[in-house]
Amino acid sequence: MSETMFPPPPASHRGPVDHAVRDEIIKAAGDHFRHYGYAKTTVSDLAKAIGFSKAYIYKFFPSKQAIGEAIGAGCATTILEAARAEVDRTSTATGKLRILFKTLTVKCLELLFEDKKLYDVVSCAILERWGVDVIYTEGLTALLRQVILEGRESGEFERKTPLDETCRAIMSAMSPFTHPVMLEMNLENLQETSAELISLVLRSLAP
Predict the structure, then answer these.
(1) 132 touches 47 (CB < 8 A)
(2) What is the pLDDT of residues 45-93, one digit of tens each?
(3) Of 75, 50, 46, 55, nearest to 136 (Cα)?
(4) pTM over 0.90
(5) Judging by beta carbons within 10 Å of its beta carbon (0-12, 13-18, 19+), is residue 183 exposed, middle or buried?
(6) Least crowded by CB within 10 Å, which of 41, 122, 177, 205?
């Protein structure tokens, strides 16, 4: 499968474009968010932790929200890249579709249960429409589109339904198990229910 291009994180910095400093700020913010939570962390806290002044941090990020958005975008991209890696290791389009949604669910669960405070940052970013939702949704749609096209070319999937309609329907059907915010509300019988749903989706794609 050809490489999927995910949308870049939003350009929320200002001032000098110094990736090392931006990365240092993001890392320190992530550590603080993990320990204290997003709401209880201030830009002053981050400045003290890094040894920078608040004014210097504001050269790179206009607000705490912008830092949170960068962290959320990084988490979304990491999840998508993990899914793409698993898809690329799978031979058939049917298998790719199964592993795509399975990997997304597993990675979102890992974030929820192993890094809850960072998960809360991602949830906040999505709910408040900071741009993270666009990165995640567009990246997932692009990857799903590639899998569907491959299945149509190999004869595994039907070709009559318009491609955009197919992708929208599958995204909508699987969102309770792949959307970080919705996933938290659908934990009961998660593995069984998600497996049943993806099997239903695959049957609908049969030629």
Answers:
(1) no
(2) 888 888 888 999 998 999 888 998 888 888 889 999 999 999 999 999 9
(3) 75
(4) no
(5) buried
(6) 205
